[in-house]
Amino acid sequence: MSEATEQHRKAAPESVRVGVLTISDTRTEETDTGGETVRELLEAAGHEVVRRSIVRDEAGMIRDRITTFLADSNVDAVITTGGTGISGRDTTHEVAERMIDKRLDGFGEIFRMLSYEEVGAAAMMSRAVAGSVGTKFLACLPGSRNAVRLAMEKLLVPEIAHVVFELKRHAKKEG
User: Fold this and answer.
1) Residues near 151 by Cβ (< 8 Å), separated by ≥ 6?
2) Mind listing the pLDDT tens digit for each residue in 65-94?
3) Which CATH entry fits the domain spanning 3-174: 3.40.190.120, 3.40.980.10, 1.10.3720.10, 3.40.630.30?
């Protein structure tokens, strides 16, 4: 790891505030294993889930809820679960692509590489995506509990504070 990366990680906040949005036509609060996994892993790492919701896989509803979460001054990042596959009902990717200012291509690439180690060629059907929306971070994960756990443990929990730090640091310089 580079010296600059290590310095930035040390300067990053210990805790970030996250909105968790589940996209599903069938999940309820009781059956939302993906959203619950995100919450559990974030809180175990010292982060705070400040908003949580479930919306149907309808592009307008997804966009509206993500926009509401991102507009909240108490939210540093939004993590979604669900709607990133290739079925006709999966629209999260399209919504996120239109909202993201700077896409972190490596997120999806590394996620699919890690997924390949677990599920083989089926990993190519994931359209997980992440990037910045203004000074906030948006990450869209598949809905399966195993995929969520993989993305959270290997990618987001270790780096979310660093990503938020970078987005805010550069916003302060520009402002």
Assistant:
1) 111, 128, 139, 141, 142
2) 999 999 999 999 999 999 999 998 999 999
3) 3.40.980.10
